[in-house]
Amino acid sequence: MDLVQDRVGEFRGEESGIWFLRPMGGGTEWTADPADVRPADPEQRIRAKTARANARSRGEVL
Rounded to the nearest 5°, which phi and psi values hold at 4? Predict the structure, then answer.
C-alpha cells in the first residue's frame, strides 16, 4: 500500500533505494519511497482487484 499515492501495488523491484510498484493485475509501474509503503490489508487488496476487474469490464483496462 503506497500511502502517498493511496494505491495498492505489487512490488516489482528496487533500484537505488526506490521501489517500483505496479497495480495489482498489471498496468503502469510507479515509484515509491519504501518508508511510504506498507503491506495492504485484505480489504484493500480485494478493493483494488475489484476496481481493476470493473475497469476491465468497461473496456478501460486491457
Answer: -75, -45
